[in-house]
Write a structure and sequence with these properties.
The protein is 5% helix and 57% strand. By secondary structure, the chain is mostly beta strands. It starts with 5 loop residues before the first helix and ends with a strand.
Amino acid sequence: MRHSNSSNLRARLACGAAAAVLGLAGAAHAAETEGVEIEAVTVTAQKRAQDTLDVGVNVAVVSAGDLQARRVGQVSDLAAFTPNVDIKENMPGILPVVTIRGVGLNDFSATNNPSAGVYVDEVYLSSLALMNFDLFDLERMEALKGPQGALYGRNSTAGAINIVTARPTFGGIEGRIAGGYGDYKTAELEGMLNLPVSDSFALRFAGKAVKQDEGFFENRKLGRDIGRRDVRMGRLEARWQPSDAFEALVKLEIQKSRSEVGAPEFFGLVTPPGAKGITCPGSAGCLDFLGYRDTDGAPFKGAWSVNPDYDVDQRALTARLTADLGWATLTSVTGYLDFKRKWGADTDGGPYRQTDFIERDKIDQLSQELRLAGATERSDWLVGVFASRDRVEMTYDGSLQDLFNTKTLTFTDQTAKSAALFGNIEWKLAPTLSALAGLRYTWEQKANVGGDLDLVPNCPASFLSLVPCGAGPVTLAHIDAKISDRSWSWKLGLNWKPNPATLVYGSVSQGVKSGGFFSGVATTSAQLKPYAPETLIDYEVGVKQRLSGLGLSWSGSLFYYDYSDVQTFIRDTSGGLPIQRLGNVSEAKIYGADLDLTWSPDALRGLDLTAGLGLLHSELGSFAASAGAVPKGNELPDAPEVSLNLAATYTVDLSDNLQGRLQVDGRYAGDMFKDALNDPLIATEAYWVWNARASLMSGSDWEVALWGKNLADERYVTQGVNNLPLGFGFRVYGAPRTFGVSFSKAFR
């Protein structure tokens, strides 16, 4: 899949990026003090509100306005804003996996934790199943690149994503209503009401509903489209501030989805008799062992046998208490989440019941964090404790009748407990130079009871266990085990501010992701063995500048990762049924660069330009796979060598109170593999996705807009699974072109 000139292209881009950095740095001295005013960007990357120019971390921030204008509806949309970030869906419309700088957990199971920690109002989401939710009424989103273990905990080796919802205010009654209609019969409605009850108590109500009555996918088996959506969400947040020394925020959220999962594109193993011009295996025109093939060449058309229903019920409660003690501030963050889900997956991609599954998940999560933070003339410090408990109960009902003459049941009951102590200090060595140190000790325990049963419902016998019918369920695999991890995460860094508009930083940090259990379908107990923790050490240097004289803000960073015991998806054929499961690769190395730029040229008032460039090189160590030893040198999954983000927005005054705005944005991702084996049959070729939006508005009062996403209707692979030992595989594709109209109206 790799082109011979890819390394030359990467070298040219690297030289160009370096030249740009030098040129921009030199421009700082020539820039005038007057020019386009650039607003400071506030982040909470270090658990306190700071200007991003004071934070020695590569962090991308998306404001509430950008979230609305770019139609950011889910976590997966964040990839459009910053380079070296890939967010894919394991099945169409669900199961997003976040990969930052090549680090991400390439898995789908509800029992596993993501490598990039996702936090909603400082509450960590412990399961991959919890990543699939819609966003509404947000203040901002932050993407922190590199391990964040010292402050964020055990499962943030890739980085962290902070989602911050809008909080109640005391300024007065205000509200907003927004809605729209798009193709595929998609209607959306969103509303917010901020209601100050008194000078010290305020409520904020927010909600969103999405109704899509036509799916992207045409299912010949069912005779209709699938992938429809019916999602309803609500949030109530209360804020009580009886004095300047105390504040309480309590938030209740609910989500209900009665939607459908999309379906993957089939490819087969066997060349059809007499066929010409078909390359097998891997083509849609190839047959599986039962004689099925898909010849239409359309990734959103097929014959799928699984019920596509996707049902979710979720409740979440968060309480944040803050007390100013005079010498320090005490913060308590408590989070509780109850989640239930049922959905189906057709993993053979065809009309027969070969590997069809219905999954049911139930998750209960409780977490508590206490932090004490203070400042002196020369330091800012923070210490804290954290504890959590989450339980995941999961079952798969497997329909394998047409291939193995049987049904299966996969079950898992996992309880995870964690506790941590952490601290962080930033010490001023000189007026322009400060040192930073962070340390975290984490203990975690996971207990897992699970396994796989061959239900043997049919005669004459199950081809999985070779047991005759009437013999009753047969245990194929079973585990009843407990693992414990104890780990240290840390960070050491230097921040140098030669002037108020420039930050130069360097750091060394270590993050650890805990071990766990594979909980998918298995045919031997050995396939359920636990995988080990992974450790990543990041060596990083960077520069940030805000040049008001040029209307320019930019940041750049270089990084090198020393990565050990890498958790990744590998193929395992040790049992009767080939599977893909989680395992460890002894080592990997990753290095690369990030460059981000925002420019509002004074000569072209109303024009705003943003650009991001990511360069990445990844290399896995050698490891054992089903077909034998895999030598050192494979690339990590979902790690393109080059990624780009571009956006241009032009706003023009049409009258005293009427403006017009045109916005175009695009994202490029280079060639990438989807598994550690670097299987070319499920790889992604380089692609561009372009979006546009045109709007008419009256300040922040009202707006009407036309929008389009994936304007070129680009077909690109987001995930794939190769099960050719069973005669088939599948590929998942990104969403097709969509367009529509939207409106919003604010009330004050």
